[in-house]
Every structure is written in C-alpha cells, then in structure tokens.
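Intended use. Records like the one below are meant for learning the mapping from a protein sequence to its folded structure. Do not use them to infer anything beyond what is encoded.
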Amino acid sequence: MHSNINQATEEMMGLRQFAGPARDFWPRYVAAAAQLAGADATVLMLGQPGKEPRWTRIADWEAGTGLSRLRTQFTSRLPDFAGKCVEKGSFMECTDASAGAFVLALRLALVNPSDEVVLAVQLKDFTESAARESYLRLSLVMDVPSAYQQNLSFQKSRQDVEKFAAVLDLNVPVNDATRFIPAALAVCNGIATRFRCDRASLGWLEGGYVRLRAMSRTEQFDRQMAAAQAMETAMEECVDQDEEIVWPESAEAASVSRDHEAFAMDQKSGHVCSLPWRLDDKVVAVLLCERRDQPFTQPEIQQLRLASDQVVRRMADLHSRDLWFGARWKAGLEERLPQWLGPGHAWSKVGAILGVLVLAGLIFIRVTYRVGGNFILRSDQAEFLTAPFDGYIREVYVRAGDPVVRGQPLVMLNQDELLLDQAAAAADVSRYERQAEKDRAADDMAQMRIDQAQARQAQAQLDLVHFRLDHSVLRAGLDGVVIEGDLRERIGSPVKQGDALLRVTRLDTLYAQAEIPESDIHEIAIGASGQIAFVTLPKTRFPVSIRTVEPAAVPQKDGSVFLVRLEPQNRTPDWWRPGMTGLCKLESGKRSLIWILTHRTVDFLRMKLWW
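Structure written out for the chain above:
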C-alpha cells in the first residue's frame, strides 16, 4: 500500500509539470488518484449545464476486471454523486457499511472556475478512518489539473511571444535602412533565416506589373533570366487573386496556383508560398518564399502575414522616397486623378462642390455683426437711509423688496431716552428763565446774563432733543423699492450714527451698464441699437440703445473693459431690479461671415507676428 502511495505521489508531482496533450494527462491523473486513494473504481466526469446527458464520463479506472454489485451500484449513482458534489464542493458517503464501501466525490480546481469536473472514487473494504485518510490525500492533489492547465497556458504564451519577437526583429533592419533596396534585401534575408526558407524574394507592383526587386542572399540578379521572369509571373498570379497561395495546394484550397506549380516544378522548389503585401487595402508587393524540406504550416503563414503587415508601410515609404521628384509627382497624380475625375466617389465630389459654395458664402454673404459683453442693471436715483444718532432699533416697517412711497415711515428708533432728555432739557430751560427773572428783580445784571446764557444753552439742548425725536422715524425720500437692508432680526440692537440701515432706489430710472472688452470697443457707436437678455430669463430679449461710453477703461482680471450705458427702448417691466445681470449684444454694422469667424485670429497673429 505504501509503495503504491509513493508511486502515485511521484506520478502526481510529474503531472504538475506535464506538457503533453489532455488525452494523455487525464487517464494518468485518474490512475494516479486511484492508487493514491486505494480505490476500487475511479471515474472522472465533465458537467454540461443545460445539455443532455448532464454528465459525461471522460476517464475511468478500475482495480481488476469484472463486475460486482458495488461497482454496479456506484456506476448507476454517478450523476447523483456529481450533482451533490457540485452543490457541496466535496463529500464522503458510506454506501454499504457491511462491505466497507465508501464513495468520495471531489470537484477539481481548474483555471476556469465555471468548469464542472468531478472525480468520483469507490472504496471497498475500508474503515471510516481509512476512508477519511484517502479523502484527505485526494484533497491534496485536486489542484494538479489547474497546475497542468496553467503550465500549458504558459508554454503557449511563451511560444507566442517568441514568434511575435521573431516578427518584430524583422522591423529593426528595415527601420535602420534609408534606401529601398537594402531594406528589401534585409527583409528577404530575415524571412529566409527565421522561416528556414531556401529563398525569399520580394516583387513590387510598378506600372501594373510586378517587378522583382530583391532576393535573399543575392545582391545582384538579372531580371531577364527565365527564373526571374517565372517568379514574376507567379507573383502576378498572387496579385490577381489578392490572397495567399500555397503550393502544393490543399484539397480545400479555392485559389488557382497554375503559375506557382510551373515555377516550383521548373525550379524544383518543393514548396512555395506567396503572400500579397497590402497598403490601405491595395496590393503593392508580393513576398514569395521557397522551401524544399517541409511544407508551410498555417501558423507560419500567419507569422509571414504579420511580418508583412509590420514592414509594408515603411517599405512603401522607402520605395516612394527613392523615386526622383518627377516620378513621385506622377505617381501622386495617377493615384488621385481617377478619384477626382472618374465616375466614382460621387459623395467626395459633392462634398468638394459644397465646400466651394460654403467658402463663397463665407466671403460674399454679409450679416449684422454684434459685439457681446456682460451687463448689470443700475438706477440713476437711489438713497441710503442712515442712523441719525446713536440709539436702538425699535420698529421696522419694511424689508428688502418692499415698494415704498415718499414720506413713508420705514424704521423707528427707540425714543424713551430722548423723551427723558426732553423733559430734563425743558426743566433746565424753565429753571434758568426763572432764575434770570429773580436776578433782574434783584438788579443783579451780571448774574442775570449768566442765567440767560444757561437758559439758551438748555434751549439748544432741548432743540437737539426735538430734532432727534423728529428724525427718530426714518422715512422714504423718494418713490421706489427697498433693495438692501432687512432689519427685522435686528430689532433692539444698537446702531451708531451714520450706519447704513436701508437702501431705496427708483425703478423708473433703471439702465443697463455694459462691460465691453477693449478689443471690441471700436466696433460700437453712440446711438446704435442692441439687445439684452437676463440670466434668469435667457429666451426673452429686450431692445436697448447705446447712450454713453465712458472714456476711460476699467482694468479687470481678464483684461480692460469700457463701461457703456444702455437705455431701454421700451417701458421697463415691473420685475426688473437693480443688480440683475445678463448678456448684451450690440449691433456694429454689416460684416462678411469669414471676417466674423477669423478676425480675432487675424488680430492675434498680427500682434504676435507684427504684420
């Protein structure tokens, strides 16, 4: 038993690094798991949700041959064991206590967690402790399939990286080359070396025909040779069909390879593969590879296609650069003239005509040009109501937004202290006047004049108290609306003489003060008309006219602006209030559309380049 366990353990360790196909891995894994558990029968099942049958046996193992009651019972209940295992993850169940029969079911850990693979094991002549020990040993090797899959994925990734690196290596000599022929020779040599080709040749499409331009390991060749002409004919066959041609062709191939067959038979090439090089979905060149030893596989053809796609644009640029300028101009015209003058590309021609019409419209159509800017509503007449003396607020009759009329009481200050001062001052006046009468009766003229002066002083104090009592109620000096000051929460609080309490302004003298940028101020004139729109009501526009322009600019963060006074042309609505803002557009005569679109850019360039 111990030797079987050791052998199974070594087998499991080897399977962790196994790199062979899955058809070899799973039977070995099931056999090793059976030995590790001391099983009588072992079955590996694959779950297929939504299909019938739900579970498929992909590998099994049995100790010895022949049928038995326990194996028959085990086999008949396999779908139940697998479903229960998927629900619980793994379990152990005693199926026949008299025969020491146990069933172990474990779900294997795979790279894809959604895959349902269950290992079911039948134990015979086992005690419960021995069955648990087998269950534990199997639990330790449930990750072997995942390690195998990860190893395969790593091997495939490494192979793909190596293939891709081999393709990218071809770009290095092509990018280093500055002429077409050295680059073409580098491509042919690189492909011949990396793909073990006897010869790799490159033909370029010139004037409607393929011209052989480079051959691997051959710096010079004669295009008049029969071999070169046969090679060009095979390349043209590839160009005509615009697809890869492999000879000998497979049974399912749909391409015609008659010229390739003739070339291969004449040159005894054995195997030939030609690939078209496409640039912007047009064939510009053909790569033809020859190999005697073995045919070209599909992965190799894919690598050749990838290598071609990587270098074709660079090769096309070098080919065009090597032509003299007249040939380059001719090639460019030959490429574009059919598009401009041919029957095709109708939408391009329509677009060009529309472009000309649009440009003509931009030049000749003149529309009204409007200068834009921000504005704020202001009023010509406004007054600040200030505290006439130090005191306390007693009553407030209005708040911000309330309309008022001239003479309407707005705020009352506390009069208690003033009334006391009034009584005291009146008593002092009466007392000094009586004292002066006594002094006159006593013929004490000097003292009389002193008492009269003190009486006048007391009278002045009384007049001051009367003045403050008369002004303890602040009244509106004009018809308008309260726009600043909400004193209802300040009742009883002290105020200092001169403190601003309320601001009242008239609504019938409102005007808009616009801020016009310095770059546009020369475009407007006094008397010109325009429109304003408020931020609160952008869809409604009100006509205005320019009344005055202040002569001095006002510096701001975004540049200097001029203040322009705009008078409403119609009666102002009742909801206009000082301080409201918005945008204004002021008319500045007729201008062409192209001038409107480009004048700021032109002015900027003139300042930068000093035209």
